[in-house]
Amino acid sequence: MHTLQLCDLSYKHGEGLMELYIDDCGFKELLMNGSVVNLKNFYLYGLKKLKQISLPAETVPSECFQRLTFVDIYYCESLRSLSWVLHLPCLRELNVEGCSAMKELIDPADQMQQASSGLPTFPSLQSLVILDMANLVSLSTCPLDFPVLSELELTSCPKLTKFLFKSSIVNNKFKEVKVDGDLWESLEWEDTTIRSHLTKFLRVVHYEN
User: Fold this and answer.
1) How far apart are CA 139 and CA 106, in angstroms?
2) Which of 57, 68, 76, 122 has the fewest beta carbons under 10 Å from its own?
3) What φ, ψ does residue 181 adopt, rounded to 5°?
4) CA 125 centroid distance within chain
5) Rg for the chain (alpha carbons), in Å?
């Protein structure tokens, strides 16, 4: 099976499905279709062949994923991007670990489309955790909005070079920034004001596999 469709998993539960855990399957694409308006927690673990998570062209995330608050992606080693999470209206926690094929969190083509749409990015995201991403170079090609982000952790990402945040990240909501010491010193910043602000909440960590 090359493609798994979300509707195939959710049809028995319909709109009542609140938590979905997919572990150790062999499909290459996950199509986020179907009616899962009550889905709150979504886990993808050890999907080594998964390359793409996509939305049907007509899908409006704010309508189909109205209550999705937690997404955890763990060692999906072929996955290339997480563009589908950009506009989730209620997403509060995003954890990504061990996705070694991913060079950017958001695909450049998807980000260009997002910019032209005028829709806000990560409108409710409070916690972003990215661990053990061997080939991650940047979160995106253009600055992203994180208007309510309060916790940020980036460790064991040896190729990460840039933080591209919009100025909205300079707010009074931040609680903690956890970053590898060497990584923090090597990062390039387009806006040094953002670096100065995040430094106030910095806690240097050393992540071990």
Assistant:
1) 6
2) 57
3) -60, -45
4) 10
5) 17
